[in-house]
Amino acid sequence: MRKKIAKFLGVVATVTMMAVSMTGCGSSDSVESGDGNLTGTVTMAGSTSMEKLANALAEGFMEKNDGVTVTAEFTGSSAGIESLTTGSVDIGNASRALNEAEVSGGAVENIVAIDGIAVITHGDNPIKEISSEDLKKIYTGEITNWNELGGNDEAIVVIGREASSGTRGAFEELLEMEDQCNYANELDSTGAVLAQVTSTEGAIGYVSLDVVDDNVIALSIDGVEATEENIIAGKYMLSRPFVMATMGEISEQNETVQAFFEYIESEEGQEIIKKVGLILPE
Question: Is the torsion defined by CA of 122, 124, 130, 134 positive or negative?
Fold first, then answer.
């Protein structure tokens, strides 16, 4: 499994949502059944941005191992890592690099995919591109009307994620405006941001690139479109890692968790990552 402890900058069905109360890393409920099929559980919690990826990987893994149950909660990146470090889950999903405190607490950063953050506006907005500096001014409240950017005389409705969101953390950090944003609405999921921007004239928000649809406009930033090709080439500035963190190295986890990571690294697992619109880490 590829993993990077340094920050990435520039560089799980049961699909059923359920409360996770199983033992975390180092649990011993994983055994080989007599017919050679793997049995046990894998529990995850964390980033809402990683829901599509986590569910797809969980479903694929369980199809190959019918004695295994994979469960996930989508509670936000910081909450997911907290669940990991307190032993509530095997894997903490974070749509950002782990911070120093999380790494010091024993969490290991396993990067499974790279995601782009798309800045989206209402579908009727004539503005198609923006500079990173003007984007920052919108989110810090210095620019409040689209006419200041050559658009309609319309108030800008600034949409973002809740404080514990990995997407928010990455967005603010990449634009160097941590704790400076003035949000009209702080929403608790990627889907909620997409829906709000879709239905609100004058709105602007940020979401994972893979959820962008034809109902919104994904703005070019500094003349660069939010595309997979541009992210791979290092041209698009808003990109971040999708992390499946473990307490200790993957090799220290129980057999079922190790097998799950092996599946992610398999050809089938890598194809799933690409099919949900994400980029394979190098």
Answer: negative
Q: Are residues 95 and 178 in the same domain?
A: no
pTM across the whole model: 0.70
What does the angle CA 267 – CA 272 – CA 275 come to, to the nearest 5 degrees?
A: 125
Does a structural domain hold residue 5? no
**Cβ distance 227 to 221 under 8 Å?**
no
Other beta carbons within 10 angstroms of residue 282's beta carbon come to 9
Burial state string for 115-142 with b = 16 or more CB within 10 A and e = fewer than 16: bbbbbbbbeebebeebebebbbbbbeee
| Same domain, residue pair 207 and 157 | yes
What residue numbers bound the domain in which 222 lies? Answer: 115-232
CATH number at residue 57: 3.40.190.10
Looking at residue 9, its pLDDT comes to 35
Do 124 and 97 belong together in one domain? Answer: no
Question: Six-digit token pair at 33?
Answer: 């059944």
The Cα 93–Cα 175 span in angstroms is 23
Q: Do 195 and 268 have their domain in common?
A: no
Instruction: Tell me what pLDDT residue 265 has.
Output: 97
Domain membership of residue 22 (yes or no) is: no
Task: Indicate the range of 81-85, 88-92, 146-150, 231-235 predicted with least confidence.
Answer: 231-235
Instruction: Say yes or no to pLDDT of 208 above 80.
Output: yes
Whole-angstrom distance, CA of residue 92 vs CA of residue 190: 18
Position 235 scores a pLDDT of: 93
